[in-house]
Amino acid sequence: MTHSSGIYVISTTLGEPARAFVPHPLPPVGPALEPALFADLNRQAELALARLSGVSGLVPSVDWLLYSAIRKEALLTSQIEGTQATLTDLFDEEAGFKVSNTDDVEEVTNYLRAFRWVQAQLRDPKGLPISVRLLCEAHRLLLDGARGAGKQPGELRRSQNWIGGTRPGNAAFVPPPPEHVPGLLADMERFIHATSTGLAPMIKVAIIHAQFETIHPFLDGNGRIGRLLIAALFEHWGLLSEPLMYLSGYLKQHQSEYYRRLSAIRSDGDWGAWVAFFLEGVAQAANAAEQNIIQVASLVTSDRRHLLQSPKAGPASYRLFEMLPMMPRFTIERVRQQLDTSFPTATAAVKVLEDLGIVIEMTGQKKNRSYSYQGYVDLLSR
Question: What is the pTM of this model?
Answer without folding.
Answer: 0.95
